[in-house]
Amino acid sequence: MDYWKDEVNMNLQDRNNMESYFYFKDEEREVCFKRHDTPTPWINYLTNGTFHTILSQAGGGLAFYRSPQIWRISRYRFFHLPTDRPGPYIYIRDGALGEYWSPAYEPVEKKLDSWSSAHGMGYTRFQAAKDGVNSELTYFVGELENSLIWNLKIKNNSSKTKQLSIFAYVEFGMMEFMRELQWQCYNKHQVSVEYLEEWGSLVYKYGVEMQPKPDETPLVYFTADRIPDGFDGDREEFVGSYRSEANPNAIEQGSCSNSTLAGGDPCGALQFNISLDPGEEQTLNIFLGTGMTEEDIRKSIENSRRDTFVEESFIKLKENWESYLGKLQCTLPDKETERMVNTWNPYQAQRNFLFSRNISFYATGTFRGVGFRDTSQDILSQIPFDINASKDKIKLLLGQQYKDGHVNHYFFPTEGWEPVTTIHSDDHLWPVWSVWSVVMESGDLSFLDEKVTYYDGGEAAIYEHLQKALEYTKSHLGPNGFPLMLRSDWNDQLFRVCRKGKGESIWTSMQYGVMLTKMAELARLMGKIEDAAAFMSTFQQQKELVNSIAWDGKWFRRAVMDDGRFLGTDEHDQAKIWLNAQTWAVMSQMADKDKSFAAMNSVKEMLDTELGIKKIHPSITDFPDPKDPLTNYNPGTGENGAVFCHANTWAIIAECLLGRGDIAYKYYRQLIPEIAMKKAGVWRYKAEPYVYASNLFGPESDRFGLANVSWLSGTAAWMYIAVTQYMLGIRSQWEGLLIDPCLPVQWKQAKIDRKFRECNYEIEIINESGVKKGIMSIEVDGEIQTSNIIKHKNGRERAVVKVIMG
Ligand code: GLC
Fold first, then answer.
1. Short-list 384, 393, 490, CA closest to 721
2. Which residues line the pocket of ligand 1, CB cutoff 6 A?
3. Least buried of 171, 306, 329, 705, by fewest C-beta within 10 Å?
4. Structure pTM?
5. pLDDT tens digits, one per residue of 381-394
């Protein structure tokens, strides 16, 4: 059955037929789509770090320059029907037939003779054929110009000459999305679209007063590799009244009206009339880009019209991704895991590093700048790939720290707005892990001496910034001796039970424990022995509290509420057990051995499901006070009893630390998006099968398995860390590369190529005896090692490593 041809509603069985939607082409690092009607838009990010586009498998999406909050270029109607509209659209009109269609399928939705699309690394492509016309359309953002490149190849496969009109269309929005919602009736008359005759280009100008950074606001150009035969800058002229992008008047009439706009609803539409002989193929390139001045734009257009520009840009994009992902590649017995590790997981993690939680199909890009907590964690997975960008991000974060050690919760480096200043018990502690990782990856302590200015003035070395962070926690302990919860910790919802400022976070005590140990190691490496001892003595104090006051009998408690009662105890009938308090008890190495196993056994028994581990159990309905419950999320959704994927990653790490490879693998595999989708059913799961979602509704919801907020989630960074550093067990340490795999018994072999400090390690792990953890021997270049840390050797470029587990 050709699903993309079917216009009527599918029955449930059809809607859940996963094979009918997509397949992976691993050699090309592509996910390919066979039908356009996925349950939600399945998107991709096209970007060069400055100019960005989100594009779906059906051609919907939007472009923005640097910030989606203040420099949004094209409009996207979030949450509205019809879904996934508009986008950077192409229409092909056959003059003789008077018919028109879209190669991306959207927005015309005309039945095609064949259709497919695919997302690759930084590009999205469409193939479509209708009435003897074949089109291949590829969108990407190259590094040579700040523009979205639309590369259209069009071929006449019929026996008659074709007179075609090709229309390229984009709906410009107001650049400030929030202002658009509030003030567009006035401000829309402060925008314009002009036509630069000489360059055959439309230019959109956002001249709105009171915009935050007028001097940094670009002009937008919309042009092609040739002069168009017609254009429109006024949406009303192009689309007409009571019509939509599905049936624009200009296309039905067969020509644009050459409108410009000085106030109103702007768009960019370009028309190209081409004649194609039988068998003839032509290429048309469209460019939607930015420049600060008209002069900049002229230069960009000139550059973009060079014969080799598009090809050069595409080759560079491909090469950059191959070299980026080449830092770690593996061959594994499990193809779904291999695919995630080699391609989609690091790709998603890189997009998180770039966009934080800003904009996706779910997140509207309106208020979240850079979240301190989230970005500190995103950096962790980026370090092996791009250490310089990671260092810059760490410094950006530490610039948000105050001299007393606490930090801003969100901030807006691009928009220049005031930060969100709520103080959370965990935010300031996170950078310790990222700085520690930078030092371990590079084998260089000098980063710790680099100076960063505090948010409230004065500068200090990075080491001191971290020290201040730990001191802040030490000076904000509660009556039981655990860190005060302050506004919340990692679990955002906890502010509801700690508003009076008395509540304490047991989880933050564990997080503090991890950071104290890492700081102690950094201090020792720097020769600061007294500092190291002081950190470890605080660690011991917290560890004792965790094992005594926080232990509930079968698991660790989660917090102390304002009223002095514990949260996460068997005494209550709701939210008895919280995932994070178990996983971090193990990760921090604070939990006594028997308690570690007992706590993780409770996770298995009470929180695990076939679609991931719930965050809490049972879900909350009216706890602790029916008039003021801990959360308003419906049971099983969001922060209340959902499978919160980010927190699942720590269970994988904890199980690896306990040496239980089978359980770790179960937890890992069940959340691989294509696996979870298969189990839940496509129509239930809904989100993309190639990137992680933030959460899946839990079993207490009647839509168990519904995936939410895909792409932008801490899951990306941590899943990557869990699988590469703990399951495959390859971790950078000060002396070299540690090899400490923890695998499922059925994996007899794994191969990993990892680039570490300029040396390519070609690692082969053999597990004939089927153990879950433990190493019998390690050989490096034929020499038996006495330790499972492969010592770094300056100048070595290649190391062949053979690891026998047993
Ligand atoms: C969201 C937030 C993150 C928080 C998590 C759990 O993912 O971005 O900061 O830790 O929810 O509440």
1. 384
2. 357, 371, 373-374, 490-492, 639, 694
3. 306
4. 0.97
5. 999 999 999 999 99
